[in-house]
Amino acid sequence: MTSPQPVSLDVLQQRSQVLWDALPEEVMDLAARFDAAGHEFALVGGPVRDAFLGRSSADMDFATSARPDETEKILRTWTSATWDVGRAFGTIGGRRAGLMVEITTFRKDEYDGITRKPVVAFGDALEGDLARRDFTVNAMAVRLPAKEFVDLHGGLEDLAGGLLRTPIEPDVSFSDDPLRMMRGARFASQLGFDIEPATFAAMSRLAEKITLVSAERVRDEWCKLMLGAHPRIGLAALVDAQLADHVLPELPALKLEVDEHHHHKDVYEHTLTVLEQAIDLETDVDGAVPGPDLILRLAALMHDVGKPPTKRLEAGGGVSFHHHEVVGAKMTRKRLKALRFDKDTIKAVSHLVELHLRFHGYADARWSDSAVRRYVTDAGDQLERLHRLTRADVTTRNRRKADRLSFAYDDLEHRIAELREQEEIDSIRPDLDGNDVMEILGIGPGRDVGLAYKFLLELRMEHGPLGRERAEAELRQWWSQQS
Question: Is residue 97 left, alpha or beta, with left meaning phi > 0 and alpha meaning psi from -120 to 50?
Answer without folding.
Answer: left
